[in-house]
Amino acid sequence: MTTSAEIHRGLAGVVVDTTEISTVIQETNSLTYRGYPVQDLAARYSFEEVAHLLWYGELPDARRLAEFRAAERALRPLDRTTAELLARLPETCHPMDVLRTAVSFFGAEDPTEGDGSPAAHHAKALNLLAKLPTVVAADQRRRRGLDPVAPDPGLGYAENFFHMCFGGVPDPDVVRCFEISLVLYAEHSFNASTFTARVVTSTLSDLYSAVTAAVGALKGPLHGGANEAVMHMLEEIGDPARAEEWLEEALAAKRKIMGFGHRVYRHGDSRVPIMQDALDRLVARAADPEVTRLATLHAALRRAVRARKGIHPNLDYPAGLAYHLMGFDTPVFTPVFVMSRVTGWTAHITEQLAHNALIRPLAAYAGPGQRPVPIAR
Ligand code: ACO
């Protein structure tokens, strides 16, 4: 080892910078965006208003919101080149690969890619916010053998996504549950994908490169990929009566139980109660035996994990099943997370640039000591 400094594997517990965007208040176990408790934002505000709050520091007034909404709606359509490029990607690839490629391509197309001014950043962030749902919806439809549905500028962000995915907008209760998930997913301080975006930005690279990298970080099942993995896990268990036995086998095989545990929350993810409430409403309105089976299994596994490991669910646990009940295909769950988290990522990219320091930690070397290279080969 070349240093005796304390090692923090996974940067656990390390504070690397300040942020004004969000924080988890450990004493009250609550998450705030720009000072506002996220559960209050989710209950009373639209996703567009929360996006504005994250980017500009304040909730918009009525005039500002109307301008913001009009700008977002105008940017939703994809140009033909992008649509054709994405339609050529193999259907065997994951929808997160499509999204990652799309973000990278938007950067290649944007003549202002390298402009790092706050105004240029806000324009690029809005462009991504507007276009990513169009990409995700078209990709889901393509995999179902359907033509894309054009965005509807008369619809809000959440409603329009349903419209582009399914050619119709569901009951307002369902849209509301979806919007709540978008608000809860929007921002979470220095999580792995946001930190990735900040690392890329710290080299003075461009916003699209930072977001492309963040999409890659979010894809993993220990992070955003967990909402999709939750659904696969529920399908694997199948019968609610098998939850405890399955859990024992999974733990014996040293598997991580998807949708449980969190690096920051020690007493439960503060976002879970409000998402669980939204999920319960979706279950109640479905009144379907198959939905009841899934909800019973979901609750049984939650109880079993709590009793056996003392671990709480994280946001991905209720969100995964909620997205299934809303009709989305399982591989689309993490792309939906991107549609929301792109707001947090881009807020952090702007903040990183405002007082940048290259992010470059040290490592304690654990390889062979210095030795002479062999003279003869
Ligand atoms: N399943 C089984 N065991 C777990 C789980 C889990 N989901 N989470 C934590 N543990 C165990 C660890 O193995 C460890 O046990 P040990 O001390 O016997 O080795 C102990 O609990 C403590 O783990 P932590 O220190 O809390 O783990 P860490 O902070 O490194 O990991 C993480 C956090 C990656 C989220 C982990 O809980 C996990 O893998 N969860 C499953 C994946 C998941 O749901 N990810 C979504 C995160 S939230 C989000 O992205 C929105």
TrEMBL record:
InterPro entries, per database record: 2-MeCitrate/Citrate_synth_II (IPR011278), Citrate_synth-like_lrg_a-sub (IPR016142), Citrate_synth-like_sm_a-sub (IPR016143), Citrate_synthase (IPR002020), Citrate_synthase_AS (IPR019810), Citrate_synthase_bac-typ (IPR024176), Citrate_synthase_sf (IPR036969)
Pathway(s) of this molecule: Carbohydrate metabolism; tricarboxylic acid cycle
Position of the signal peptide: none
PROSITE patterns with a match to the protein in the record: CITRATE_SYNTHASE (PS00480)
Keyword vocabulary terms for this entry: Acyltransferase, Transferase, Tricarboxylic acid cycle
Record's keyword annotation contains Flavoprotein: no
PANTHER family: CITRATE SYNTHASE (PTHR11739), CITRATE SYNTHASE, PEROXISOMAL (PTHR11739:SF4)
Chemical reaction(s) catalysed: oxaloacetate + acetyl-CoA + H2O = citrate + CoA + H(+)
UniProt-recorded name of the protein: Citrate synthase
GO terms assigned for molecular function: 2-methylcitrate synthase activity; citrate synthase activity
Organism: Streptomyces andamanensis
Record family assignment: Belongs to the citrate synthase family.
Classification via Gene3D superfamilies: Citrate Synthase, domain 1, Cytochrome P450-Terp, domain 2
Domain of life: Bacteria
